[in-house]
Amino acid sequence: MPLNNQDKATVLRDILSSHQTDCCGSVAECEQVERIVKSLMAHTGINQNVKDILQEIYYYGQHGAQSADLDNHIVMNQGHLQNWVDEIDQFSTKL
After folding, report:
1. Per residue, what are the HEC states of the chain?
2. N or C: which end of the chain has fewer CB within 10 A?
């Protein structure tokens, strides 16, 4: 069964929250972040502010997947992670 946009936002939030809490993650999670964000951005009714946030998250996932030290990448983005989780909480109900 395919995920709807709210389900995708929930999965995205869970991955980012886990990274923020645990200060570690996997390349597969970063790649999943990229795929989810691409899918959400394809949604035509999404506003520009949400697209900007999703673009930041996409770059986070992309750089994480390519990072030689993923845990350090996650630690360096701790401030962003909490903000993104909060933003997803706000916009996920509007998807």
Report:
1. CCCCHHHHHHHHHHHHHHHHHHCCCCHHHHHHHHHHHHHHHCCCCCCHHHHHHHHHHHHHHHHHHHCCCHHHHHHHCHHHHHHHHHHHHHHHHHC
2. N
